[in-house]
Amino acid sequence: MSNGGVAIPLGSQxxxxxxxxxxxxxxxxxxxxxxxxxxxxxxxARQVEALGIRLIPxxxxxxxxxxxxxxxxxxxxxxxxxxxxxxRGHGWRFGRRxxx
Length: 100
Description:
Blueprint: H1 20-29, E1 34-36, H2 42-50, E2 54-56, H3 63-71, H4 92-98
Parallel strand pairs: 1-2
């Protein structure tokens, strides 16, 4: 998500060939500080956060608009919530916890 403080979209990547434990480590190797994403399993979310990566999951919408909202400090925002995730406690709790 960031490289020297600059927001960089990773786009869509297929990491299905990587074992689950290697996925969070791959993010750390890439120098990712913040991960904005759609769906993520609870186990992987805990691994990502354990490595010190700030996680804001369950996002949907235009990538540039989501990035702009993040840079402006406006995430989480219900406009970008994945359908069914807002207020249910399973997704946005990660965003609230990671919010400054």
